[in-house]
């Protein structure tokens, strides 16, 4: 049983510019997220609307055959003006502030957790926090190009924290229609692919949006597959998984997923995760999945 966490600091939601690739300061320590037995998942497909073809208005002479008739699909679920919150996992200053990020917090669902963690890194030393920050910025630009309002849970890659419950508070307070928490895993070198996590034991806070969160997860999974990313070969099923010990999901009152985009200890994944082209591709998949979900919600 859990109550709402107390928060000492709420980060501002001011967006930042979105075109540069961050430099990779190597952290001194790493931590990995724990894993548990995957439960079975059901899958469903998502739908996308297509653009209406241009109308032809010219009068054809009687001898010209009529062009084939097409019926434009009605515009469903305009996305402009909707709010999406992006949570880039970890932060570049975490490794130098153990006293802050190692503070114990209520993790929800009966778990005790720490404020935040350093994250993992590739075998070449490219850190997870730089990956999540880069993808978040590309994703933000992709969404804003559709008129979507984006709220970020951190505004730089050289700060400390915020603690995970404070990130959730930022997301919740924004009233976001969807929340995307971006991470990368550190596992055995042969493990590859992404998995999308939802709350496996919804809390009093997260339960009202449990179904929407699951729909968001499926939409993101489908879009990532469509973008060419393989589903995880070591966790979850068909790219979907549930966990009950993730603070950021336990304290979320919005439709929310956490994605482990790949395994930074796998050479193929790491090459995608540490290059701008790969990071743009992750963002494109996340944007497509988020937009498809928003449209499906009307
Ligand atoms: Zn992480």
UniProtKB/TrEMBL annotation:
Q: Which protein, by its recorded name, is this?
A: N-acetylmuramoyl-L-alanine amidase
The keyword Hydrolase appears for this protein: yes
Keywords attached to this Swiss-Prot or TrEMBL record, sorted alphabetically, are: Hydrolase
| One of the GO BP terms on file | peptidoglycan catabolic process
User: What taxonomic ancestry is recorded?
Assistant: Bacteria, Bacillati, Actinomycetota, Actinomycetes, Nakamurellales
Which SMART domains does this entry report, sorted A to Z?
Ami_3
Annotated Pro residues bias: 62-71
Q: Is Isomerase tagged as a keyword?
A: no
Q: Where is this region: Disordered?
A: 1-76
Annotated organism of origin: Nakamurella alba
PANTHER family in UniProt: N-ACETYLMURAMOYL-L-ALANINE AMIDASE, N-ACETYLMURAMOYL-L-ALANINE AMIDASE AMIC
Biased amino acid composition, Low complexity: 1-20, 51-61
Q: Which GO terms describe its cellular component?
A: outer membrane-bounded periplasmic space
Residue ranges of the MurNAc-LAA domain?
168-291
Molecular-function annotations in GO: N-acetylmuramoyl-L-alanine amidase activity
Bias type Acidic residues, positions: 33-50
